[in-house]
C-alpha cells in the first residue's frame, strides 16, 4: 500500500518531526508512507470571509495537483465521519482488499480545506470535534495509521 500524507505548510517543530519519522519507520514493513508538503498561502492574521475562501482555494489547487485519478482521498475535516481506531483499520483493510493501494490523506492549513478538495474526497474523516494544530495532526495521523496496520495484522500494540 502506498500512503501519501498531503499537508499544507512546513513542519518546523523538531519533536513533531522526530515522532513522525519514528512512526514512518515503524510503518515500513506494512506500507510505503511519504509526506508531501505544499506551501501555505501568505496571508495576514485577520482575513475577511472572502479572503479565507481565496486562501483555501489556492491551497486546494496545490493539494489536488498532487493527487492522481486512481488515488483514494481521505480528507481530515472537523465535520467528517468519526471512526474508532478499529473502524479506520477496517476501512484501510477494505481498501487493500479491493485493490485501492494508493491512498492520500489530506491535511489542510489553518483555514481548513477548500470545497474542491472536499468534493474530491472519497472519505471525510474527523478525529474530533476539537480543533488541533495541523502540524500536530500529522503525528496523530501517522500514529493512527500505524495502529490500524497493527490491528489488521492482529499484532500487539499498547492501548
From TrEMBL:
Domain of life: Bacteria
One of the record's GO molecular function terms: rRNA (pseudouridine-N3-)-methyltransferase activity
Residues reported to bind S-adenosyl-L-methionine: 76, 108, 127-132
Reactions accelerated catalytically: pseudouridine(1915) in 23S rRNA + S-adenosyl-L-methionine = N(3)-methylpseudouridine(1915) in 23S rRNA + S-adenosyl-L-homocysteine + H(+)
Major site of localization recorded for this protein: cytoplasm
Subunit structure comment from the entry: Homodimer.
InterPro entries, alphabetized: Alpha/beta_knot_MTases, RlmH-like, tRNA_m1G_MTases_N
Keyword Cytoplasm included in the entry's annotation: yes
Family: Belongs to the RNA methyltransferase RlmH family.
Species whose genome carries this gene: Pullulanibacillus pueri
Localisation: Cytoplasm
GO annotation, cellular component aspect: cytoplasm
Keywords: Cytoplasm, Methyltransferase, rRNA processing, S-adenosyl-L-methionine, Transferase
UniProt-listed SUPFAM superfamilies: alpha/beta knot
EC number(s) stated in the UniProt entry for this protein: 2.1.1.177
Name by which UniProt lists this protein: Ribosomal RNA large subunit methyltransferase H
Statement: the UniProt record of this protein carries the keyword rRNA processing: yes
Function: Specifically methylates the pseudouridine at position 1915 (m3Psi1915) in 23S rRNA.
Amino acid at each position: 500500500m502506498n500512503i501519501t500524507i498531503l499537508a499544507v505548510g512546513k513542519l518546523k517543530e523538531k519533536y513533531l518531526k522526530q515522532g513522525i519519522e519514528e512512526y514512518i519507520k515503524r510503518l515500513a514493513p506494512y506500507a510505503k508512507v511519504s509526506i508531501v508538503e505544499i506551501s501555505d498561502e501568505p496571508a495576514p492574521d485577520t482575513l475577511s470571509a472572502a479572503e479565507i475562501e481565496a486562501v483555501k482555494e489556492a491551497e486546494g489547487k496545490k493539494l489536488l495537483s498532487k493527487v492522481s485519478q486512481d488515488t483514494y482521498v481521505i480528507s481530515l475535516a472537523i465535520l467528517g465521519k468519526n471512526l474508532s481506531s478499529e473502524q479506520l483499520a477496517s476501512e484501510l483493510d477494505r481498501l487493500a482488499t479491493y485493490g485501492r493501494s494508493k491512498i492520500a490523506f489530506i491535511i489542510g492549513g489553518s483555514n481548513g480545506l477548500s470545497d474542491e478538495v472536499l468534493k474530491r474526497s472519497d472519505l471525510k474523516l474527523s478525529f474530533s470535534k476539537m480543533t488541533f494544530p495541523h502540524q500536530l495532526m500529522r503525528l496523530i495521523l501517522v500514529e493512527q495509521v500505524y495502529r490500524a496496520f497493527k490491528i489488521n495484522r492482529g499484532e500487539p500494540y499498547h492501548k
